[in-house]
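Figure 2 data, in text form.
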Amino acid sequence: MINERYNEKYGIKGWGIYLPLQTISNEEYIKYRNQYKEEKDKIDFKKITEGLGVIERRKAHPSEDVITMAHEASINAFKRAGVKPADIGSVYFATETHIDEVVAATELIESLGLKSNVELINLTFTCQAGTSGIISAIREANYNNKCILVVASDTAQANIGDALEYTVGDGAAAFIIGENPVAVIKHVGNYTSNTKDFWRKPGEKAPSHMGEETVKSYKKHVVESLKNMLKECKETIHDFNKIGMHTPFPKMMEWSARADKEPVIKDNPLEELLKKGTFFEKTRIARETGSVIGNPYPVTVLITLANMLEQSRQDEKLLIISYGSGATAMSLFIETREGLQEVVKSEKTVEEFLRVKEYISPETVLDWMKFRAEGMPQFRNIEYKSEMKRRGCKTVERNNISKGEVVSTSKSLDGIFRKAMIKTPNGIVESLIAGCDLQPGTKVKPALARIEELGKNGPPFYKFIHKEDN
């Protein structure tokens, strides 16, 4: 539907996010990368930090993936919404970095302790998948009167040497949809066309894009979806207290409002805000958020929405515009309700997540990028030893691995982790072990105990991280 009004009995009950602790400064990263480039190929870091507006980015540790991050965001959302896993009837999971090409995120259902009769839907439409999940969940709630979990999680990939290398980030965001909401969807506007500005072919680890054409597509779809929404609203663009948009990089929001940026769009509502001088204040939260997390694809706009809700009061009018390359855009008119402030205070906020970080070196980031691109195992953190990562993750024993025996091992992949094939009662699994020297014939359980002991007073070590070998 181009535009529709929703039953306001159902909406956003609560939300939670997760941001990796590890942070890379783009200034430091670009200076390091320039050391290995010819003079003509070097990049002025200010073109990224000021020109695009991306100052730093969050990067997931190799022991994290889309499931572990989605788990933590979901736990935070449960706490804020005051719901239990047993209350969830459906899960919408959005990512561009699936851990399996064909199987849905069933491991998330297991880790969260959800009921076996829960419905699980995987969503993929580049960076719009998360907001599509929220709209689909509200439609479903009107039908079955259940609480629904919508979660987006991504370890955004980029080819080394591509412009995306300086903008992609990692993270997760989860929203609970149900009765007695603290924010409701009033109107939705869409705009979709067959525009191939961004793609990733089967077997490729990172996406490709059309550069300047992607910027033009973004502006066209974002503005037209907004115009479609406003056609059915009594409100004008000036009535919204806060405006958030998907930010491949924060400067793109401003470009969508500028008349000198192609394509020229007649009656552009965002241009009206720029002329009036209110654009930058209304979009402040979105621009500031995107500048310090990077672009974790479908997660970006949802973290912005969470931050906007946390800085709002009852009866405010919020505008969220998502964009998915390919291409589509969705504009959401959201209105806050009674009880919002109490819900905000009940769990860790986006701003609190942003204050807690640990800077990592450019060399480390490149190693992790190569590590993921080379088809590393999809990791599972089973034991969090770092205090900053102890955020409610449930310890999960999967496939009886602690009862297994090492069959073979590889050389260390990055100086920390080594692959190991482990024979368990459930069959052979491919694992990643850190913190001790495993040899063929080693029983896993004593090895895990040694790792746990090592982790008490030293750096974070992880029990076992693995995927099924089937």
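Caption note: Residues 376-399, 450-470 have pLDDT under 50 and may be disordered.
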